[in-house]
Amino acid sequence: MIQTVQSGNQLSARDRRANDMEIVPLGAMLGAEIRGLDLTDKIDQGQSEALNAALMAQKVLVFRDQDITSDQHLAFGRMFGEVTIHPFVPHLPEMPEMLVLDNHQDNPVLSTDMWHSDETFREEPPMGSILRCREMPPVGGDTMWADMTAALGGLSDKMQGFLSGLEAIHDFKPFRRRFAGLPVKERHEKLAEFEERYPNPVHPVVTTHPVTGDKVLFINEQFTLAIKDMREDESRTLLDFLFTLPRIPEYQFRLSWEKNTIAFWDNRPTQHYAANDYFPQRRTMHRITIKGVRPN
Ligand SMILES: [Fe+2]
Hints:
By secondary structure, the protein is an alpha+beta fold. It has 7 helices and 17 strands.
């Protein structure tokens, strides 16, 4: 929630502007709409701090009817940290930071219809992503987020204690398919190059959120390969169980997009899933991704 140090007409100009914003919770566990903020205007320091506080509390922020330019989208992202470039997903030709997810008849969904946190194949996965809807089919194409602090808290104390000592190996596995059509030699060379750039990071299974201090269940179906130092069958059985947790509706928030809806999520305590129910229609999204720190 927005913190103000003064009240009523004693608000400073900065606090008043921040205070024009309204935070409307949308989900029981996570998700809120930010009203009263026009992202075509320059966002000031007080507003970005208020948004950051709202993001920590609500985990997913939704902004409606934001007809911003790509430059404004990028500048908005930069207010929250260093913006990164995705190594596998296409981007705007003139702006490598702007990831483009353009799915239609000739470009079916690759892997966004699996529960995941973004880019956990990195040593330092993103702190957040800012996704903007460019084109949406008349129905379908929703995104769901799950609160992985709530999912962890729903487990027994015994299970939480067991998980807290474990580590997991992550991999860019769904993107390996991108090289499948290449001649064998070229495919091996390309994969070797990316494996060198993104060697399998090991992240704790239970992380501590660097800002809120919340405990988070930090494994995901898209990028987690195995539990370290376990037998293959033990690891598989445990992961298969843990992968069911974000699917529990009570932990979720579901967003129906419209053109120029923006969602800004904290990537560390959440997972998300894009419903792949609109093929062969077109769904086009643009994303700016903000660098995070090594999970602990
Ligand atoms: Fe994603």
